[in-house]
Amino acid sequence: DEGDVISGYGLPSDAYTALCERGALVLDLEEDEDFLTDNAELTALATLGIFLGSTKRSPRETRVGVVGYGRIGKRLTSMFLYLGATLRVFASRKDTRLDLCECGIATAESTHDADLSGLDILINTAPAHIFDADAVPPDLRIIDLASGMNFPEGLQVERYPSVPAKMFPKSAGDAWGRSVERFI
């Protein structure tokens, strides 16, 4: 009602409209770039923690594929490069792939039949179905950070939606709170 403050992430447009019509102040965190940046950093850190805590292999001995080069993909790429991993970034935008190649990072286009051979782990940050099951090597470890079913049925995929809140609840809550404070 009037005077209420509602915050959420990815609010459906009909819910957003109905709440506004009732006089509520509605904050969709998808519209707050500072929150999205904080969330991407926490997601990348959590993913790195999941990886490091579940393998005996050092990052220098690991061939990592990162799907998507948005907020999360950029941070993951930077972190894995810092730790000495061999990287291949799958990005849809040609200019992004060219920029990464100029920095010495192997890239490939995000297509259904992209070459995933030679990778030890594939980390997906893109919220879309990209790869066909036939393109995925059977021993490839897949971590999916994007919400939804982004890989075909039958593949073993580790899904980590909302990983910041699960691994860093205080930091995730602080990021949410700062967003609400900026909004109010």
Describe the structure.
The protein has helices spanning 13-21, 33-53, 71-82, 94-102, 163-167, 169-183, and strands spanning 5-8, 25-28, 63-67, 86-91, 106-109, 121-124, 141-144, 158-159. 39% of the residues lie in helices and 18% in strands. The radius of gyration is 18 Å and the shape is elongated. Strands 5-4-3-6-7-8 form a 6-stranded parallel β-sheet, with helices on one face. The chain has a two-stranded parallel sheet with strand order 1-2. The mean pLDDT is 90. Strand 3 (63-67), helix 3 and strand 4 form a beta-alpha-beta unit. The chain is an alpha/beta fold.
- Spatial arrangement of strands, main beta sheet: 5-4-3-6-7-8
Distance between the termini: 16 Å
Query: Residue ranges: pLDDT <50 for 5 or more in a row?
Result: none
Q: What's the number of helices?
A: 6
Fraction in beta strands: 15-25%
Mean pLDDT: 90
Q: Give the helix proportion (percent range).
A: 25-40%
The biggest sheet amounts to: 6 strands, parallel
CA-atom Rg in angstroms: 18 Å
Structural class: alpha/beta
Please state the overall shape, judged from the principal axes of the Cα atoms: elongated
The tally of strands reads 8
Helix/strand order, N-terminal first: EHEHEHEHEEEEHH
